[in-house]
Design a protein that fits this description.
mainly beta, Immunoglobulin-like, 3 domains, ten-stranded mixed β-sheet, six-stranded mixed β-sheet, 9% helix
């Protein structure tokens, strides 16, 4: 008896798809101690999660004896598939009307990989425990729900057989199709080109009709309901461009609807032809609850070969997240999320260069100079009016503690290098940010307008204190000889909490009366 006849003898048979709530569910024990109807009374999962490794139970029921079933199982396979629909609940219960069908994942399993086979009365049960990854649908669904389908059929290797493999080769001594463009090969203009178009490309060939007699009808089954599905972990990535690298911040947020603990076991970010440096020392595994957000920072730098090669500007970024959840209802779930995006690592911020302003007049006092965008670090200054070869400019470096406390003094360290060819003298002036005034005074106002303005004036706002208090009387640098360096510091007191606004630091050249304003100072966070 061939495999086709044995498989047809399994019918009438049915396939059931179960998703029990508890991970230690034993379907064979339930069947031995109860009846087949006891499987429908087992507590099932209420909902599923995207990126989940779903533990599915597939049970085949047939009236054939166990020995006959065991003989045919090595020649069979079953395909388990997950589909998503946009389910809209109607009324009470689990009844739902689904619109559309989106394939999430399908995987083939050999039928010989069964967990157990048992015979009860006149029925034989075959139990499989496959694991299927539930990918996210490409379409955006309002109320997604997932259901499963399974089909048991003869294995493809058995259906093909050795004869069909040999028929895939061309027959020996078979002439090739006629080249209908062969006369054009004698054209002098086409002498160097191989013009070839076979006759079979333009000849209508009817496809071979399928042999319905050889077709085998598979045994199909499906889950009895569609399970509502939600994302367990929301992930997004953002980029910040620096002068020599790109900072990628990966945000992982646990869904607030999860009642339980989600443990993040592994997070990986990879970029080909680039160096990836992990900046945050997050101890994994990390336990999170619903609504918690975890941020990991990575420093992305192009490799030497990628910088020299004129390749594509966009670089692929691969992110993989491994996690597991222990829900309060007793379920244990494993998550595996992998997705790809792109980033342009060729874009870098320009190196900050400050230029001196016009000379200040002694009568008008200090006048605000010009400054360009920058960031904390070395700042270079050049005097456009004196561009001598021996005058290489001035370099200032600012540093400060990353954190401080409210009502506590801290220092802004200043390091100055004189690369010019002459002595230099500087003065440092701290200009705190000014608060805009709510009302402006007018020189001449009518009496009626003055009275109206008094009664219609907005309520006075309480004056807001600055973030820091300047404790510097007068800071001077120099005289600084050519090639020398000098270090000093500015004292401040933190008046509020959070990221402190240090305002603007004005540098005055006491010899030429030129000024430059530095606005991008180190970021300092004040704690309670």
């Amino acid at each position: 008896m061939d495999i086709k006849t044995r498989f047809e003898d399994l019918s009438p048979a049915c396939l059931d798809v179960l998703l029990p709530k508890t991970p230690d569910f034993d379907a064979a024990n339930v069947l031995r101690n109860g009846s087949p109807e006891a499987l429908s009374q087992v507590p099932m999962r209420r909902n599923l999660f995207f990126d989940e490794q779903a533990n599915v139970f597939v049970i085949l029921r047939t009236a054939r004896p166990e020995e006959e079933v065991r003989e045919v199982l090595p020649h069979l396979e079953f395909v388990l598939a997950a589909h998503a629909t946009d389910a809209v609940p109607q009324g009470s219960g689990n009844a739902a009307s689904a619109s559309g069908k989106h394939d999430l994942n399908s995987k083939s399993f050999p039928a010989a990989s069964f967990a157990s086979v048992l015979s009860l009365e006149d029925t034989t049960y075959i139990i499989w425990k496959p694991i299927l990854h539930l990918a996210r649908p490409r379409a955006r669904l309002q109320r997604p729900a997932i259901y499963f389908t399974v089909a048991l059929t003869i294995s493809n290797n058995v259906q093909k057989g050795p004869r069909q493999t040999q028929e895939e080769y061309l027959k020996s001594y078979e002439p090739l199709p006629v080249n209908i463009l062969e006369p054009l090969q004698f054209d002098p203009a086409l002498s160097r080109s191989n013009v070839y178009l076979p006759e079979s490309r333009i000849t209508k060939v009817a496809p071979k009709a399928p042999n319905l007699q050889d077709a085998v009808k598979p045994i199909r089954g499906a889950s009895k309901r569609a399970f509502p599905a939600i994302p367990a972990i929301f992930s997004r990535i953002r980029y910040t461009v620096l002068a020599d690298a790109t900072i990628a911040s990966l945000h992982l947020e646990t869904s607030h609807v999860i009642a339980g603990t989600v443990t993040i076991s592994d997070v990986k970010l990879s970029v080909p032809n680039a160096k990836v440096e992990h900046l945050t020392n997050v101890a994994l595994p990390l336990e999170t609850r619903g609504g918690d957000e975890t941020i990991t920072l990575y420093r992305l730098t192009l490799g030497k070969m990628a910088k020299g090669a004129a390749s594509q500007r966009m670089s692929p970024v691969s992110v993989s997240i491994l996690a597991n959840a222990s829900l309060d209802q007793g379920s244990h779930i494993t998550f595996n999320s992998s997705w790809n995006t792109q980033v342009d690592l060729s874009q870098t911020s320009t190196k900050p260069v400050y230029k001196w302003s016009r000379p200040l007049s002694t009568s008008s006092g200090h006048r605000r100079g010009h400054s360009s965008s920058s960031h904390p670090g070395p700042v270079s200054f050049e005097e456009p009016q004196r561009r001598m070869e021996e005058d290489a400019g001035i370099t200032f470096r600012f540093s400060a503690p990353a954190t401080t406390h409210k009502s506590t003094n801290f220092q802004l360290e200043v390091h100055c290098n004189n690369h010019s060819g002459r002595k230099r003298r500087f003065a440092l002036i701290s200009i705190l940010p000014s608060r805009p005034k709510s009302m402006t005074a007018q020189s001449t106002v009518a009496n009626t307008d003055l009275i109206a303005s008094i009664f219609n004036a907005p309520p006075l706002e309480k004056a807001k204190l600055p973030d820091v208090l300047d404790l510097n009387p007068d800071v001077r640098i120099g005289p600084l000889p050519s090639g020398a360096c000098f270090e000093t510091h500015l004292k401040f007191r933190a008046m509020t909490t959070g990221v402190l606004d240090l305002g603007t630091l004005r540098i005055v050249d006491l010899d030429s009366r030129h000024t430059v304003d530095v606005k991008e100072l180190p970021n300092i966070v004040a704690l309670d």
